[in-house]
Amino acid sequence: MISKHFSSSPNKTMKTRTAMFRVGNVKCSSCVTSIESALGKVTGIESVTVSALQGRAVVKYVPELINVKAINEATEYLGFQVIEFPEDMVVCHLRIKGMLCTSCSGSIEHALLMVDGVKTAVVSLSLEEAKIHFDPTLTNSDELIQAIAACWL
To answer: How far apart, in whole angstroms, are the C-alpha atoms of residue 118 and residue 122?
Structure first.
């Protein structure tokens, strides 16, 4: 049995996505406040959380209104270097029942990594779950489920 959960959650009429990236030169709470308030005013960005300690930003945005490249440019315009900025990605969690050993989880992980658009796939035998980062323009959750099902044929 496979069930799915996305990190993208529905807004009133539009779905949001979450982008996580590292930001350089964030040294204090004033830097955090500058980034959060400036990016928070940008159309299409729903929320911004910045950690000075981790040097990381988490941005919830509406992809129909803004893309990650524009968020990157807005952050750099503020004077903060974006160290890592992933392309538009979706994180999908799939519950996988019936795995009996590490060979099962390894086979599923390998099958997922072979799907065009999948960037990372981690399958946990003990949690009975797969966490997959993928490009939604190249694949979708149905194709991921088909790849998993093909392992048991």
So the answer is: 11
Host H or E run for residue 131: strand 129-134
101: tokens are 């050993």
Which helix (DSSP H) or strand (DSSP E) does residue 49 occupy?
Answer: strand 45-51
Task: Cite the DSSP H helix spans in 14-140.
Answer: 29-40, 68-77, 102-113
pLDDT tens digits along 61-93:
898 899 888 998 999 999 999 986 566 678 899
**Residue 126 neighbours by CB under 8 Å, 6+ apart:** none
Annotate 72-101 with b (16+ C-beta within 10 A) or e (fewer): eebbeeeebebeebeeebbbbebebeebee
- Are the C-beta atoms of 89 and 135 separated by less than 8 Å? yes
Mean residue pLDDT of the chain comes to: 85
Give pairs for 8-13: CB < 8 Å, separation 24+.
8/90, 11/46, 11/62
